[in-house]
Design goal:
Elements: E1 15-23, E2 42-48, E3 55-56, H1 63-67, H2 78-94, H3 100-103, H4 110-113, E4 116-120, H5 128-133, E5 137-141, H6 145-153, E6 158-159, H7 165-173, E7 178-184, H8 193-203, E8 204-215, H9 217-222, E9 235-236, H10 239-248, E10 251-259, E11 265-272, H11 282-293, H12 299-303, H13 305-325, E12 330-333, H14 337-346, E13 356-357, E14 375-376, H15 380-384, E15 388-391, H16 397-403, E16 413-416, E17 422-423
Parallel strand pairs: 4-5, 4-7, 5-6, 7-8, 12-13, 12-15, 13-14, 15-16
Antiparallel strand pairs: 1-2, 2-3, 3-9, 8-11, 10-11, 16-17
Helix pairs in contact: 7-8
Domain C-methyltransferase: 261-419
Domain Methyltransferase putative zinc binding: 6-67
Keywords: Methyltransferase, Transferase
């Protein structure tokens, strides 16, 4: 069998990181009438490159079939909106971004002198709305037309296409080069990393700043976050792998923030190689050293991950059997892609979890892919009074637990399964 090449360095992939079996696409929710139709499943087998240490999946569908219409709307998380607002305020202050309404002669063409903030995968405008409210020009790039429509409703200009070199050149021709270029939780979704990052290089102004946020592979491994592995996430990054990728295309990471979002993420700041206004800070060196100390430059570290995942699966089944045998009703809160990975890997269906609720009306009335667990609005919990509510988006457990505080009225409890089983 011909080995697949690494999408970063091209070396053949021979090392398994974790094999989660066969699974449907995690964001392909089903209508009830589709429940008895054949379900397409694909290998969810993550490999790690022994040369550059990029963790990655095979690509089974073109991005157009996955992201042409998307079920995830960023604005349904209050904590994520707060994160976006805080980021906006920080960037405006740190990089002295001035609004054209306060800094420009009204007779001057603002497009020539005012900063332009461009976000790739802008989703429903959850972030750019805050720059726009501050009087700063914005442009969103979002291929999923249903979520892009929500951004347009906020008055945000959106280009509804996939990003890469071709679109970057088109935007340059339209005089839309970015002073600030943003990509939050998009890098993992990109099958052709080199075309994408070459596009970033092209679109960024000579003295512009690029920021990207992505889940940190070190946190995924240390906290057993295997459920964040699904077909839409083609790659899983350490700072080391992203630094290698950017260097190939003439971009240099000069700062990095460690975030608690999505179970532990990095926000990297980058500019063009040769931009002397952006010197590489100690934070970059420190985090690279932490990754070395954690073993992320040794293949043995990656090969040990699979057993931790199998152990978690056994513990979850033990939890479910114990509580279902005791006659307890179990529901779940949230229908994220990560939850579908976990349910399908563990083989959990509606005989164990009665239903799931989600704030996103786009998902309500549908069925989870694979497990066929029905999705209801959050108020369904009050009507049915389950004994246990599993919080599937464990990264938002504090926010959601606060929303669910009322279940204590009938003795209900909240629980999470990742990184380990916890109930309160």
């Amino acid at each position: 069998m011909k080995l697949r090449p690494c999408r970063l360095c091209g070396e053949p992939l021979i090392h398994t990181f974790v094999d989660l079996g066969m699974s449907p696409f995690s964001n392909h929710y089903l209508k009830p009438e589709e429940s008895e139709l054949p379900c397409s499943v694909y290998p969810l087998h993550a490999y790690v490159c022994g040369a550059c240490f990029l963790v990655q999946l095979a690509q089974f569908e073109p991005p157009e079939s996955i992201f042409g219409e998307y079920a995830y709307f960023s604005s349904f998380s209050d904590s994520w909106l707060k994160h976006a607002r805080n980021y906006t305020e920080m960037m405006i202050d740190r990089f002295a971004l001035q609004s054209f309404t306060s800094s420009i002669d009204p007779t001057t063409d603002s497009s020539d002198v005012s900063p332009l903030v461009v976000e790739i995968a802008c989703n429903d405008g959850y972030l750019l709305q805050f720059f726009q409210q501050s009087g700063i020009r914005t442009l969103g790039i979002e291929p999923a037309r249903n979520v892009a429509a929500a951004a347009l409703d906020k008055g945000i200009p959106v280009v509804m296409e996939f990003f890469g070199m071709e679109l970057a050149h088109q935007l340059i021709c339209e005089h839309k080069q970015a002073d600030v270029l943003i990509g939050n939780n998009v890098l993992a979704h990109v099958p052709d990393l080199h075309d994408f990052v070459a596009g970033l290089k092209t679109l960024l102004k000579d003295t512009g700043v690029l920021t990207m946020e992505f889940p940190h592979l070190l946190q995924l491994m240390e906290h057993n976050q295997f459920d964040t592995i699904y077909h839409e996430h083609f790659s899983y990054f350490s700072l080391h792998t992203v630094q290698q990728l950017f260097a190939i295309h003439g971009l240099a990471i000069f700062d990095v923030d460690v975030l608690d979002t999505h179970g532990g993420s990095l926000r990297i700041y980058a500019g063009h190689v040769g931009d002397t206004s952006k010197m590489i800070g100690q934070s970059v060196h420190t985090l690279l050293q932490q990754e070395v100390a954690a073993g992320l430059r040794k293949i043995e570290t990656y090969l040990a991950f699979s057993e931790n995942v199998a152990h978690t699966k056994r513990n979850i089944w033990q939890f479910l059997i114990e509580h279902k045998n005791a006659g307890r009703k179990i529901a779940a809160y949230g229908a994220p892609a990560k939850g579908n990975t976990l349910l399908n890997y563990c083989g959990i269906g509606k005989e164990m979890v009665d239903y799931v609720v989600d704030r996103n009306p786009y998902k309500q009335g549908l069925l989870l892919p694979g497990s066929l667990i029905p999705i209801f609005p959050p108020e369904y919990i009050r009507e049915t009074k389950p004994d246990i509510v599993i919080i599937m988006p464990w990264n938002l457990k504090q926010e959601i637990a606060g929303q669910l505080s009322y279940i204590r009225d009938w003795g209900g409890q909240c629980a999470v399964w990742i990184p380990q089983i916890e109930m309160w």
